[in-house]
Amino acid sequence: MTASTLSEVAKLAGVSPATASRVLNGSARTPAPEIAERVRQAADTLGYIANAQAQALAKSSTGLIGLIVHDIADPYFSAIAQGVQAAARQERRMVLLATTNGTPAEEKHAVVAFAARRAESIVIAGSRSTRAEDAHANTELAAELDRYCRNGGRVGVVGKPILGVAETDSYRTITVPNEQLARDLAQELAHTHKGPFVIVAGPDGLATSDERVAGFQRGLSDAGQPAADVVHVAFNRNGGFDAGIELAWRIKASVPSAPEQRLCIFATNDVMAIGVAAALRDQGLRVPHDAGLAGFDDIEWLRDFRPALSTVHLPLEEIGRLATLGSSNERKAGEEPGPRSSVTGKVMLRRSTETPHLPRG
Questions:
Q1: What is the pTM (predicted TM-score) of this model?
Q2: β-strand 94-99 against 171-175: which pairing, if any?
Q3: In CATH, what is the architecture of 64-176+317-330?
Q4: Per-residue b/e over 178-195, b at no fewer than 16 CB within 10 Å?
Q5: Which residue stretches of 47-177 are H helix?
Q6: Does residue 347 surpass a pLDDT of 90?
Q7: What is the pLDDT of residues 298-308, one digit of tens each?
Q8: For the domain bounded by 178-313+346-353, which CATH number is listed?
Q9: Nearest in space to 199 (alpha carbons), one of 226, 164, 167, 161
Q10: Do domains 6-59 and 178-313+346-353 have the same CATH topology?
């Protein structure tokens, strides 16, 4: 089936192709209302589909926002994406999505692709890598973002700033106090838990995980507790499951003298905590009876998780919205000025870290 053309619409409406284009592609220069209506009726009759690229040229605007996440299947990123989509809908823009598996090299390729498609802004949600093997890719990513901003693009980054990119009105970071919140969680848990702690973390050099590990260790130290052992695995559900299998042997081999002396596990994100719980269950162990368990992020999936998981709540959809507004050319009334904005979170202690003999609160 051959698509209808703009020339055919113009011929049926009895106008020039330029006039038909001004009506259908959103130009500020529009003909008289009766002519415009005749053009629209002709387009409906022929089933004409407007050319988005032509519309962008007519309006000097593509209305596109590029969103870069590590893994859209991860509920942490999908919640942020919902916030981005909500803000885009409010601004009558469309969102383009790229997933990168968490590498700065793939993030750079996504930036190049979005820039080539004339996206007006780009939102990047994902942990920064400080690994030596990613140093060159980090430099290339910074160079592409700098080029993009110098050509009129705007960028919103969730978490840590991208090293090497100057923070200007065109570049905004939404910071998350991962270290402080993890410290608060450790201090809260240490009030009632007197046994050993273990941290299930992502790979070394993954900034979000590293910050949460450092904060949790500092919280334990502040509470007079010894440092926790750290198990490094993939920063996802399967990584948590692998760690849970390893820890199950340790739990079975130890017999605590009192319930509060059992092992307490802190996973540096909720999906890892879910994986840990699944592995313990697979090995015939129960949370919190055999081990305490806490996560970080308070993802949507936790509504159906039992026992209710202790975690740190982050306003994930709000983070996505703020990053999108930060990357938009139109600053909304009341929005915080300047290149940085911050959000905070809240420790949520739930059933998964209760001492078994204590009554539920």
A1: 0.81
A2: unpaired
A3: 3-Layer(aba) Sandwich (3.40)
A4: bbebbbbbbbbbbeebeb
A5: 52-59, 75-90, 104-116, 135-150
A6: yes
A7: 999 999 999 99
A8: 3.40.50.2300
A9: 226
A10: no
